[in-house]
Design goal:
487 residues, TIM Barrel, Urease, subunit C, domain 1, nine-stranded mixed sheet, binds zinc ion, disordered C terminus, alpha/beta, eight-stranded parallel sheet, 2 domains
Length: 487
């Protein structure tokens, strides 16, 4: 299969120099970029030629943090007004009822939304696997693979729960919180199984595997050590949520260390580790993370959704931290569009510390934000081969149509217009390894309505069975509040 993209208004390579080619043409052969040219390329030898007049083309976007399974529970009224413990208490019972078929439906919807927003590679932090049943990860891999997106599957785990949540859920759902609380040996066995069977570190890989307890298990550091050792054995990445709350810092003081020192002690402070959020890092944390090559998945919309602290992203980057962008799961971001996410990332850091205190010279520019969402994000999830447009590299490409009225008057700099002015989040074309997965703003080979209806049915089933069992009304906005604050 050969493909020529011609007459691209602007081609952004996202290379180290931030090069842009106006009036560009890109030749794709056998899944790779064969030629990039500012003058026309003869068309006869190509199987297909697509004219991209009026479009901007970037490397395919790379999503560094997600929880596909949470797409089962988007925009649930009962969890709209609660902080961490409230929404966990309400959502875990729903997720505990998830079947592998439900997860496949959620994966389809999440990957479809990512592809439709120009994303060609995504990480997914699958930390909730009822009874450690291998059928879940296999269902997810099959669904993502069929859609054609590159997947970095982080086999997560949950061996403990916050505060007295475990006891409350045991009372509601039965032993081990209805089967969602993990047995350590079973998790480690499934991690190893996935690494052996699926981790493909080759340059064209469609599937890599990483390991990631959902949070640092300060109560059980030996488990974290065992996970780190396993990652070392299989050259897999390590990932976890890390935004040390005051209670976690207090726990660490009892260990005579800071949270980031604990990461070092358990073998997690190393290249190949990336943390999600990092909303409460101090200067010491940042220094230690940077000097040890630990990267960050920044999920700006999650911060808004949960009312969390806004991190000074520009300071992290200036300190040398590698940062990628992530949409996070639907429990803390009801939207899964990467375009939406990069638009918020371009703005949110400007109000770090409450606003008015971030000097404008530190604000990120559109080209810097694009780089976070492409080349840097690819490095974050252990795929340095992705995230750039270069001759010989994989043909992972997104094209966005800027001919709509939302971009009127915003063509002085097309990338600025795309990120700062636009409201349309659909890619016109998304190409993964030379294969067109989105064409003319529509999924190829998939009926978008069928994907939505399948997930709608799964969600209705989960909510219906829980409402029958516990009498909870998930349509009720009075979700309650708690004193525990995330972020
Ligand atoms: Zn998350």
């Amino acid at each position: 299969m050969s493909l020529l993209l011609r007459n691209i208004d602007e081609l952004h390579l996202a290379d180290g120099e931030g090069r842009v080619i106006a009036g560009a043409h890109v030749a794709i052969e056998d899944g790779r970029i064969a030629d990039i040219s500012a003058v026309p390329i003869p068309e006869e030898r190509f199987d297909e030629v697509i004219d991209l007049t009026g479009h901007i083309v970037t490397p395919g976007l790379v999503n560094t943090h997600h929880h596909f399974f949470q797409s089962l529970t988007r925009a649930i009224p009962a969890v709209q007004r609660g902080h961490l413990l409230d929404w966990l208490l309400k959502l875990y019972p729903l997720w505990a009822g998830m079947t592998p078929e439900h997860l496949a439906a959620a994966t389809e919807a999440a990957c479809a939304e990512l592809l439709l927003s120009g994303t060609t590679a995504t990480s997914d932090h699958l930390y909730l696997v009822p009874r450690a049943d291998p059928a879940y990860a296999e269902a997810e891999i099959a669904a993502a693979s069929a859609l054609g997106i590159r997947l970095n599957l982080v086999r997560g785990s949950m061996t403990g729960m916050e505060a007295d949540l475990g006891a409350q859920l045991d009372a509601l759902l039965g032993e081990r919180a209805g089967g969602v609380l993990d047995d350590e040996d079973a998790v480690l066995a499934d991690m190893e199984r996935l690494a052996r069977r699926h981790h493909d570190a080759s340059p064209d890989s469609k599937l890599t595997v990483a390991f990631g307890p959902t949070t640092v298990t300060y109560h059980n550091l030996d488990f974290m050590r065992r996970v780190a050792a396993l990652a070392g054995d299989y050259a897999c990445g390590l990932h976890t949520h890390f935004h040390p709350r005051p209670d976690e810092r207090e726990t660490c003081r009892g260990l005579d260390a800071s949270p980031v020192d604990v990461l070092a002690e358990i073998g997690w402070l190393r290249p190949g580790t990336w943390i999600a959020h990092g909303t409460r890092l101090d200067a010491y944390d940042i220094g230690r993370l940077v000097e040890n090559g630990v990267a960050l998945a920044h999920c700006p919309r999650m911060i808004l959704r949960l009312g969390a602290r806004v991190p000074p992203l520009h300071d992290y980057i200036a300190a040398g931290m590698r940062v990628g962008i992530g949409v996070d799961g639907a429990a803390s971001n009801d939207c899964g569009s990467m375009v939406n996410e990069i638009r918020i990332a371009a703005l949110l850091h400007r109000v770090a510390s409450g606003g008015g205190e971030v000097p404008p010279e530190g604000w990120l520019l559109p080209a810097e934000v694009l780089r976070l969402a492409t080349a840097d994000g690819a490095q974050v999830i252990g795929r340095p081969d992705l995230g750039q447009i270069r001759v010989g590299g994989p043909a992972d490409i997104a094209a966005f149509d800027l001919r709509g009225v939302g971009y009127a008057g915003a063509r002085t700099d097309l990338l600025s217009g795309f990120i700062l002015a636009g409201s349309e989040t659909r890619a016109a074309y998304t190409v993964v390894g030379g294969q067109i997965r989105v064409r003319g703003g529509e999924l190829v080979d998939y009926d978008e309505q069928a994907i939505r209806e399948r997930l709608d049915r799964a969600t209705a089933q989960l909510i219906g069975q829980l409402s029958d069992k516990l009498g909870w009304d998930y349509r009720n906005f009075e979700g309650g509040r708690s004193d525990v604050v995330l972020g």
